[in-house]
Amino acid sequence: MEGREFVKDDDGKGIWETSAHDAYVGQYPRLSELPVREPSSHHRAYMHHPRALNAPGNTAIVADVPIPEPGDNEIRISVHSVALNPIDPLYVANPQDAPGRVVGSDIAGTVEKVGKDVTQWSVGDRVAGFLQGATSVNPRPGGFAEFAILEADLAIRIPSAATFEEAATLPLCSLTAAQALFIRLGLHAPFPHTCAEAELGESPAILIYSAATSVGLLAVELARVARTASGKPYRIFATASEKHHQRLLDSGVDAVFDYRSPTWPEDVYKASGGISAALDCISEDESTMKISHTFGESGGTVAVLRQSAWHPEGHKDKVNVIYSAVWSGLGHEILYNGGTIPPSSSWRAFTVEFFKFLSAGSPTDASRFPIEPIPQRVMPGGLEAVVPDAFQLLGSGKVIERQHQGSEPWLQPISAEKLSVCYRTDDEGEIRLDTYSAPYGTWSSPITAEAITKGAISFADVIVDPITSTTYHIEARPSEEGRNTLINTKTGQELTPGKEWNVRTGVHEYGGAPAIVYNDFAFFSRFNDGRVYRVKEGREPEAVTPDSDKAHRFANFDVHPKHTHLLVSVLEDHTIDQPAAIVNSLCIINTNTKTVHPLVSGADFYASPKFSPDGTRLAWQQWFHPDMPWEGGQIHIGDIIIESDTVTVKNTVHIAGETKKISAAFPSWANNDTLIFTSDESGYINPWKYQNGKATALFPQPVEQEFGVPLWVLQFFPYAILDKAVKDGRSGLHIVDLTGVSAPQALDVPYVVINHIRSVSRETHEVVFTGEKVDEEASIIKCTIADLSSGSPTFTVLKPASVPPFSRDFVSTPQPMTFKAANGDPIHVVYYAPRTPDYSGSSIAGERPPCVLHVHGGPTGLTVQSLNWKVQYFTSRGWAWQVLDVNYGGSSGYGRDYIQRLVGNWGVVDVEDCIQAARIISSAPYNLVDPKRVVIRGGSAGGYTVLAALANAPDVTAFAAGTSSYGVSDLNPLVEHTHKFESRYLEKLVGGTSKEVPEVYKDRSPLNHADRIVAPLLVRQFLYLQFLRRVVLICGKILQGEIDRVVPKEQAELIYDGVKSRGGIIEYKLYLGEGHGWRQEKNIRDALERELQFYEGVLGLKN
C-alpha cells in the first residue's frame, strides 16, 4: 500500500494521508475503528515496527506518521529498541499540549541517514539517545517510532559488546543522575565540564536514596567511577530494600540501609558521621524530609527529581533542596509540568561531554560502557505491548501504584529493572528484529569490505619491559601500507612514528619477534633496511648495527642483564641470497660500538636465545634440515664468558629434542638454575624443566593438550605465571607448579585464542597477552591472579581491538565438530552457519545454503575459533562461509601423531579430508549445506590443497568452484625457488626429494593435471584465476604479490602459461609491494570483494 499518515480533520475524525511509518500515538479514534493497513513490500519493515503518538485521552494507539528527515547537525535513527520511563505513561495520561505528538524518550538503533555537515556519524553506526516529544513548544517528535531524529552531538556511540537493549536504558536516566551528582552536588566528573554549582569537602559522604531505581543504580555507577577517576575519597551510602543490598555493595557502595526501617535516617547518620550531599531518586512525599536528618550540622544539598518533593515540615536546618529537569540537557525549550523550561547552552554542553564519556567506553574494556547499564526486562510483543502491558506496569510512576497484569514473567511487579521493548519476537518469545527471507547467498549485509578494512589494526606482538614492567605492543596498520609500529600500550605513544619506520623482520621470511624493550630503551629491526635500531620514547631512533645493504636480518633479541649494551640476536645472513647459501646463527650486537659479532653457529636455524637472570648462561633452540622446528627442534645451554666486551659460549649442553623424533622449543628461565621449555616427547607439546643437569616433565602424566604452537613465526615465550594450552582449536590458561611435579590447574577464561603471553610481575601474579573471543577480535589483556591457590583470574583490557561498527547480532559463532573419515580417522572442522538479524532464512522452501570450505595454510596451521570479520562478511549474506574450517590431517593442536598424518601424504590426506568433510556436512544426519554449491578456498599451503582438490583428486567435481591464494601449482620449481626456511620441508610432505621420488612430484603438481579442472577457479598468488567453462575456453584473472619469496610469483606464471597454452583467456594483475599474503588495506579490500563477486557469478546469485 502507499503509506498513509494519521491526521485530524476539521470534525476531529481520523483520516489517512501520504507516506508514513508506524508509531505509537495517544488514543484518537479506537484502534478497531481505523482502516486495515494493507501489506506492501515497499513498507514491509514499517508494519512490524509500531510506535507511539500522544493524543487526547489516556491511552495510546498505533498510527502512521510521516517519516522524519534529518536537518543540519541531525541524524535519522532506525530504532531497534526503546526503554520506558515513568514519564512516558504520564505524558500519555496527561498530555501537555496538542494531540498527535510522538512520545517516548529513550531509544537505541542504527544511523539510517545523516544531515548536512554531519561528519562524526556514518550510516550503520550504532547509537542511543533520548528525546522529549510530548509538547508542541518545539517541533521535535519523540522516540517511539520506527525512525527518530537525534542531534548529531547528542547521540551516544554504542560500544561493540553492548546490546541495543542495554544502550536504550542509559540516556535519560544516566544524564539525570549525572546532572544531579556533577552539577548540583559537585562531585568531580570523569569528563570535562564547567557547570558545577557546588564543591564538596574532604572525604565527603554521599547518600543515594532509593538506589535500586533506574536513576539510583546509575548514580551508584557514576559515583563509583568518579571516585576512581578523581582519586577523591568519596564514601557512598545508599538505601534500598534488603533484597538489593548485596548487589549494591558489590557495585561499590560502602553501606546500604533498608528504607523501610523507621530508624534508617539515624542509622545512616551514625555510619557516615553526617551526609554531605544526597540524591533523592524517589522525590515523593516525605522522602526528602527524612533524608535531611542524615546530614551533619553543617548541612548540605539534596538533589530531587520532582518540584513537589520537598516536605516543608520537620526538615533539618541548613539542608537545601534543589530540583533540575533532565530536559534542560537537550538545549531547547520544553513544555513541562505546566510551565516552560528555557534552553540552556551550558547544560547542553554538559550533555555533549557526558555522552562523549559514555561513547568512549570503559577505560579497561572499550567494548563496554564505562558504567554498567541497568538490568533490562525485555518485553515481548513489540510496541503494541507498550500501552496494555508496559504503561500499566509502570502506572503513574509511583512505586506503590505499580502492578502486574498477568502470570507471565515480564508482567510481574518491576523492581531494579528497566523495561525495554524490542520491535520483534519470534514464536518462542525471543527478541529479534523484523526479518525478511531471501535465497541464501543473496542477503543484504552492512558488513562491507571497506568497513572491515578501513583503519583496521592488529597486534603483531606484546612486549613487557622487564625493568619497568611497562607494556608495549607492535601494531600492524594496513592503512599505512602495511607497516608495523611500536607503541606504549598505556599512553598510546608511538616509539616509531612515521611511515619510514616499519618494525618488522624478514628472518625465515615469516618474521616475528622484531623488537624488545629494556629499561625504557627499545631495540627493533627495521624492515626497510634490515638494521637494528635503538630508541627511547620521544627520541629519534638510531642504528646500532652497520649497514649491510639489506643482507643481514635480525630477530629474537635478548638484553644481557649485567652488560646491558650487549644484545643476543638471531642473525640471518643473505650475503649470497640463495637458499642453500643463506647462513643462520646467533650473534652479539654491541650497541656501544655498533658492531655485530658471531656467537653460535653450525646449525641450520636458531630461535629464542635467552640469557639466564644472572647473565652467566644462555639457552636457545636450534634445528637442522630437513626438520622444521616443530619436528626436531633442540634446546641447548651454554656458559657465557665476557672478556673486554668479547662474548663467547662454552660448555654447551644439549638438554632436549631429537632430530626427526622429538621437538623441544620455547626456552625460558624461571631462575638461574631452572629452565622451562616445551617438548612433544609424550606426543603432545607439554612443559618441561631442566634443573640440576636433568630434564623432566612438569606433569605427572602427559596432558593431551598442546602447550605450544608450531614456530612458523618467531616469538618469545618468556617465563610467565600462566601457561597456554590448545584443545580443539581453543586456547586456555593454566597454572603450572614449577617447584614440583603436578597436574596443571585450568583457569576459567573467556578467550578462545591467547597469544604473546608475557610476564608483568611475579610478585603480583600479572601477565599480559592478546586474547580473542568468538565474538571479539584480539585485544591486549592483563590477567591478574590474586590468589594462586584459588586460581580466580581477573582480566583488564589494556588495548581494545579495532572494532568495525557492526552489531554482534550479525556474528555467526563457531561450532567445532569432529567427523569420522572412511578409514576411521578423525576430521576436525569448525562450522559457521549463515546469520544476520535481518533475515530469518531462505525464501525458497527446503533450500540449503551455499558453503565455502576454508583450508588453512601451513600445512601444519590450525583453524581457531575467534572472530574473523571476513567470515562474517560471507555468513551475513547467507553463506555458510568458513562454514567448514577444516583442520585436516597434518594440522597442529591435536598432537604429534595428527601432524604426522601428512608426512609423505601432502596433496592426498588433506584433499581427502576436505572432500569427505564437504560430503559429510551436506549429507544426513547433518544436511547443513547444499552439496552442489560447496566452494573451496585456501592460501599458501591451503591454496595448494585447493588446486589439488580440483585437479588431482579422483573426483574433481566435489566442489563447485575454488579460490587459491598464493598457492603452489608445481612442486619442482617450488623446491628450486622457495626460501631457505621451507626449502627442504617438501621432502617430508611428499616422501623424499625430487630425485628420489620424481613421479610423486609430477603426480601431485596440479599444473600437470590442469586439463582435469572443470570447476571455475579463482587463483590468487596472490593469484586470481577465473575458469569459466565454455566447451574448452578457460577465462581467468591472476593477481600476484610482487615480492613473494615463500611461494614465488613464478608459480602463478606457470599456471597462467598452462591455461594460456590451452587457449584460455587469462588476466594477470601484479600487486606491487606485496609478498606472501596481503598487508596493504586497499589490496585486502580488493581481494575480498573480488572473491565474493567471483562466487556470486559462478553460482548465479547475482544478475
From TrEMBL:
Organism lineage: Eukaryota, Fungi, Dikarya, Basidiomycota, Agaricomycotina
Record SUPFAM superfamilies: alpha/beta-Hydrolases, DPP6 N-terminal domain-like, GroES-like, NAD(P)-binding Rossmann-fold domains
GO molecular function, one term: serine-type peptidase activity
Pfam families tied to this protein: ADH_N, Peptidase_S9
Any GO BP: proteolysis
Protein name per the record: Enoyl reductase (ER) domain-containing protein
Top-level division of the source organism's lineage: Eukaryota
PANTHER family named among the record's database cross-references: PEPTIDASE S9 PROLYL OLIGOPEPTIDASE, PEPTIDASE S9 PROLYL OLIGOPEPTIDASE CATALYTIC DOMAIN-CONTAINING PROTEIN
Gene3D superfamilies assigned: alpha/beta hydrolase, Medium-chain alcohol dehydrogenases, catalytic domain, NAD(P)-binding Rossmann-like Domain, TolB, C-terminal domain
CDD domains linked: enoyl_reductase_like
Ranges for domain Enoyl reductase (ER): 57-400
